[in-house]
Structures are given as structure tokens and as C-alpha cells.
Design brief:
alpha/beta, six-stranded mixed beta sheet, 3 domains, D-Maltodextrin-Binding Protein, domain 2, Arc Repressor Mutant, subunit A, disordered C terminus, about 300 residues
């Protein structure tokens, strides 16, 4: 079977729309419809019911989801393994949400180089939703994300019970001012809590969706903002930043997400490295594992 048929099927399942699936796959809607028709002919069953609201799965379609995911994952693993250098036994691909890669991902790479030199490594940094979709489809082995949403067939493991803390370049540690406040978009939950705690900071001079960029800007020009505790700790120790006394803290945990049926002979050392790197930055937090479902509350 053409693997693109399974990919197209899963794309429609993810967005509940033939039109959106066509846009995300960069093909025409006619091509998507033709692929679904071919797949249905091969299986001898109708997979989707189309209506004004989009596309919903038939009972046969719901049964095929797991098989389609397996088909895509097996194909991607086979394709990736064919590209593994001759001196490495396997390839591990890890994706990390933009706001979480530093310093966790670099620490992991260094750990893997020392402890698992027989594995080839590939890392990517991107948007959480896109990365999670790729781990579900088998094109990534592990994803590190802040708030991974529920997906069938995935395991979710807490890595770091991180916090966002308010820091300032001013030693006086006074309350932040809108004129020199750097607002980083740490997600919808943070935004809601932040607006309740600091309604006067609803309009500020600089906003950024990238934490490292906001932090470098803050260090360069001065001011205040919320950043990950483990990232700003060295700057606090050096006297470049100061905790704002009495300011609320916000939870920002990081999770590792991987397929429940993954090849653990390959993933075990990679996950061990992530746990080790995370524990080194989070004072040995206890690791918790959750099977398919919502992440545990911090």
C-alpha cells in the first residue's frame, strides 16, 4: 500500500477536514479525496462521513486509526534506519519545544555522546503541536513539550517540574514597570494567571514568543520579566539578575512524549539521558510516567 494513503488518512483524522488536510499536505483537495477513495477500495470499507462540519470517522475508520499509525511509524523507522552511519546501531530523533530546548537539549546531547556513542542523533526545535503530531506519526522518536495534549498510543513522562520566576536587572527588586517589562508568551495557562496577578502589565513595550530571545534582550537593555528558574539561576548567581521578592511563581513542567509501542532497545538510553539531564537541573525531581492521557498537574 502507498504509505501516502495512510498519511493522508491520519491527517484528516487530526484536523477533521479534507480541506485542511489538503492544505497541510500541500496537495489539492481532489488529490486527498482520491487517496481516501483508493484506501477505502483497498480496505473494502467506508472510512469517513463528510458533512458541513467536516469529516468524521465511521466505525471502520476508528478501527483503522491504530493500523494506519503503525504503518506510518514502521515505514519511517525503516527509512531512518537505512540512513544510519555504519558505525552506529540506530538513530534517535528528538524534537523539543522552542521554549524548552535550552539547556536541556544540549545537556542531553553531551550525555549521549559520552554514554551512548553507538547511537546516531538528530534533534529538531519547533512548535509543540507540530512535534507531537510527528511523534504520533513516527517521524520523531521523542518530543519534549510543556503541555502535550492527549493522543492515543503515546506515553507521557514528566521530566522537570520547572517554574517561571520573575527576575529583574535592578538589584532593588521593585515591582516591574510596563515601560521596561519583557513579556514572554509561555502559553495560554500562563497568560491567564499572569493577567490576574499583573493586570497593569497587560500592555507592555516588548512581547516575545521565544524565551531565550526575551532573556538575551533583558540582559542587554535591562528590565524585568518571567523566565524559567533553571535558566536564570546562573545569571542570579553572577549578580546579573535578581529575584523580585514576593512575586508569584508559575509552574512550567516539561514532559517527554513517545510512542507506547516504541523500540525501547533504542529509546531506553535516550530517555535515561533525558532523565539524567533533567535531574541535574531540577534537584533530582522524581520521575513520573503516565500512559495515554492528560499530563499530571504540577
Amino acid at each position: 500500500m502507498d504509505i501516502n494513503l495512510a498519511r493522508t488518512f491520519l491527517e484528516i483524522v487530526a484536523c477533521h477536514s479534507f480541506v485542511q488536510a489538503a492544505e497541510r499536505l500541500h496537495v489539492t483537495q481532489t488529490a486527498v479525496s482520491a487517496r481516501v477513495k483508493t484506501l477505502e477500495d483497498l480496505l473494502g470499507r467506508q472510512l469517513f462521513v463528510r458533512n458541513k462540519a467536516g469529516a468524521s470517522l465511521t466505525p471502520a475508520g476508528e478501527q483503522f486509526v491504530r493500523h494506519a499509525m503503525t504503518l506510518v511509524q514502521v515505514w519511517e523507522r525503516a527509512r531512518q534506519q537505512m540512513a544510519v552511519p555504519p558505525d552506529r546501531r540506530a538513530l534517535v530523533t528528538v524534537g523539543c519545544e522552542i521554549s524548552l530546548w535550552q539547556p536541556l537539549l544540549l545537556d542531553w546531547l553531551l550525555w549521549m555522546r559520552a554514554k551512548a556513542p553507538d547511537l546516531a542523533l538528530r534533534t529538531e526545535v519547533g512548535v509543540a503541536e507540530d512535534l507531537l503530531e510527528r511523534v504520533a506519526h513516527g517521524t520523531l522518536d521523542i518530543v519534549i513539550a510543556y503541555a502535550p495534549r492527549q493522543r492515543p498510543g503515546l506515553r507521557i513522562e514528566l521530566l522537570i517540574e520547572e517554574k517561571l520566576v520573575l527576575v529583574s536587572t535592578r538589584a532593588a527588586r521593585e515591582a516591574p514597570r510596563a515601560a521596561d517589562y519583557v513579556y514572554v508568551d509561555w502559553g495560554s495557562e500562563f497568560a491567564a494567571q499572569h493577567s490576574l496577578a499583573f493586570p497593569e502589565l497587560s500592555s507592555v513595550g516588548l512581547s516575545s514568543s521565544l524565551g531565550p530571545l526575551g532573556l538575551e534582550y533583558l540582559l542587554a537593555v535591562g528590565g524585568a520579566g518571567y523566565f524559567r528558574q533553571n535558566v536564570v539561576r546562573p545569571h542570579i548567581q553572577q549578580g546579573r539578575l535578581h529575584r523580585v521578592a514576593g512575586a508569584p511563581e508559575f509552574l512550567y513542567p516539561a514532559y517527554a512524549v513517545y510512542a507506547a509501542d516504541a523500540d525501547m532497545a533504542v529509546l531506553t538510553p535516550a530517555l535515561a539521558g533525558l532523565r539524567q539531564s533533567a535531574s541535574g537541573k531540577a534537584q533530582g525531581q522524581t520521575v513520573k510516567t503516565v500512559k495515554t492521557g492528560r499530563p499530571p498537574k504540577g
